[in-house]
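Sharing a chain and its predicted structure for anyone who wants a worked example. Both blocks are below, sequence first, tokens second.
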Amino acid sequence: MHALSDIVCPLLKWYGANARDLPWRRTSRPYAIWVSEIMLQQTLVATVIPYWKRWLKELPSIRSLANAKEDRVLKLWEGLGYYRRARNLQKGAQTILTQFGGRFPRTLPEVLQLPGVGRYTAGAICSIAFNQPAPIVDGNVIRVLTRVYGIGADPKEKPTNERIWSLAEELVRNAGSAQRANERNCSDFNQALMELGAMVCSPTNPACHACPLRRTCVAKRDGRQAQLPNLRKNAAATPRKFKAFVVESSGRFLIRRRPQEVVNGGFWEFPNYEPEAEAAPNLPAHGEPASLCVVRHSITRYRITVEAVHAKAAKPGRARKNEAWKTIEELDQLALTSAHRKILGKLMKTTPRKGRG
């Protein structure tokens, strides 16, 4: 197949007529595009939109992000998960100030120096923000290219993965070579590949009748859409059970901050432990705890259940390092892990707050 006439041109035409109106597509600011690409890692577009808008309103520039307090950064990210991404964004902003004079890096090797930026994200930033012929390969692109080219080998295996990257590079370079004045073909083509995978070439029941590449696609021709891409099955999910203590004393609640070096480091949560793996936390003396709620959520391959209980303590005792006693209103302002934000939501429904009659 001829990359330009069979793939690039039809896909660019389709994208021009069918691209979703996403807020980060209305700007070419590399900072705004960088933030969107980091947020979109393993997160749905619909979830990201309000976070991205709020982030750009609160931290509109590289300098404002670099100089922001960590608590503010984490609070803006609260609920998006994979919280290391937020820290890497701030570290990246600080890197841009110290190593690039406050100007967003423009070349692929330079962009790759930013914390948390890998081959895909660097390619996305360089192509979308600067219209450079840098390839991108994510799950959507893998699905489109393995089907269009009929690639039956596991795309996660190194030789196959490199072949897909080579195809992506050839295609975006073809797009760039066909560009006319005032066009942004490299930017548009890479976004078109991702858009096609997200909206048409879906993992199951792809809408082949609406695909601009249906006459070229090997999987469509051979009826192999359901077999491609040929991905390894994910490992079975592992269940984990935790118990959380919502300890209250004189209208304040005990809260603890996770160590910086662990998962979700820097976020706050109620004292908790995993009964099968560790001892119960040391808590102030309290009365008989009452069941508050059960929260279920997932982190990577873990399916987590958190049983939260509410207990009253006569005296709060002195808060230790990374501990604090907070009112409901103060808790609401903290950056909490996702499960413990849900626990707080239940607590807020059952506990009288200031100003209520």
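Comments welcome. The chain has a mean pLDDT of 93.
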